[in-house]
């Protein structure tokens, strides 16, 4: 499973000293871009291919608090099905394995010219990604 390590920084905390809720989304976004990079797909290459990923829905389930200095591993796993959308499941875990949060998203791949979702995102990802196996393809 793909994952990236992040250290919680002091300026990311809320008034209670916990990781701010919006930062969980930033960590998840960071991991999504990193898995694409690991698959050989840079942002520039993605955009030059005429498509871009879009987030359509995101759900966060908070399990344990995070504080400044905590190190976490943020995973990223694409879930492929039929149709114009795909799922992304992510877990944010402390390095001792404790689950701090789960992030589940529904995404699509938008054609930059038509501004519509591509009909088969799985096949389009395969066509433009140097290492599609990293994305579970």
From TrEMBL:
InterPro entries found in the cross-reference section: 4-hydroxybenzoyl-CoA_TE (IPR050563), HotDog_dom_sf (IPR029069)
Superkingdom, natural source: Bacteria
Pfam family, one: 4HBT_2
Keywords for the protein's UniProt record, in alphabetical order: Hydrolase
Gene Ontology molecular function terms on file: fatty acyl-CoA hydrolase activity
Transmembrane segments: none
PANTHER family according to UniProt: 4-HYDROXYBENZOYL-COA THIOESTERASE FAMILY MEMBER, LONG-CHAIN ACYL-COA THIOESTERASE FADM
Protein name: Acyl-CoA thioester hydrolase
Organism per entry: Asanoa ishikariensis
């Amino acid at each position: 499973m793909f994952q990236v390590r992040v250290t919680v920084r002091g300026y990311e905390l809320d008034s209670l000293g916990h990781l701010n809720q919006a930062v969980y989304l930033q960590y998840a976004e960071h991991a999504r871009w990193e898995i694409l990079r690991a698959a050989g797909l840079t942002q520039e290459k993605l955009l030059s291919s005429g498509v871009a990923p879009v987030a359509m829905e995101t759900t966060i389930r908070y399990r344990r608090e995070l504080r400044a200095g905590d190190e976490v591993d943020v995973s990223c796993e694409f879930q492929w099905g039929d149709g114009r959308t795909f799922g992304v499941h992510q877990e944010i875990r402390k390095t001792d394995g404790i689950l701090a949060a789960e992030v589940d998203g529904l995404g699509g791949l938008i054609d930059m010219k038509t501004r519509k979702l591509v009909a088969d995102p799985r096949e389009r990802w395969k066509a433009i990604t140097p290492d599609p196996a990293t994305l579970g393809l």
